[in-house]
Write a structure and sequence with these properties.
The chain is mainly beta. It is built from 1 helix and 10 strands; from the N terminus they run βββββββββαβ.
């Protein structure tokens, strides 16, 4: 079982940047693809980005493509989400989760538990 702790959220002005971190524990972390998701009150959780277990393949939601970058540091068992050119519509609680493949994560098929999430608020 992989345990996840997200951090790095906060309040930022539109056009600004934030970097989210997802620290994982559990010896099988490095075997999983990892994804970032986000949720606003009253809406379903939505896919944001995913990265393969090797780090060689990534996938992004159209709404964040070109602005967000997902990466992973296997030595630190951490996955990152660099968010640039933030917009008010990016405001949400962001979660990371493990999955078997990036295409599975894209449709919300995770293989494990959600972390507690980190709040990102973008002011316009």
């Amino acid at each position: 079982q992989v345990q996840l702790v997200e951090s790095g959220g906060g309040l930022v002005q539109a056009g600004g940047s934030l970097r989210l971190s997802c620290a994982a524990s559990g010896r099988t972390f490095r075997m999983y693809a990892m994804g970032w998701f986000r949720q606003v009150p009253g809406k379903e959780r939505e896919f944001v980005a995913a990265i393969s277990w090797s780090g060689g393949s990534t996938d992004y939601a159209d709404s964040v493509k070109g602005r967000f970058t997902i990466s992973r540091d296997k030595a630190k068992d951490t996955v990152y989400l660099q968010m640039n050119s933030l917009k008010s519509e990016d405001t949400a609680v962001y979660y990371c989760a493990p999955g078997l493949r990036t295409d599975a994560l894209r449709v919300g098929d995770i293989d494990g538990s959600w972390g507690q999430g980190t709040q990102v608020t973008v002011s316009s």
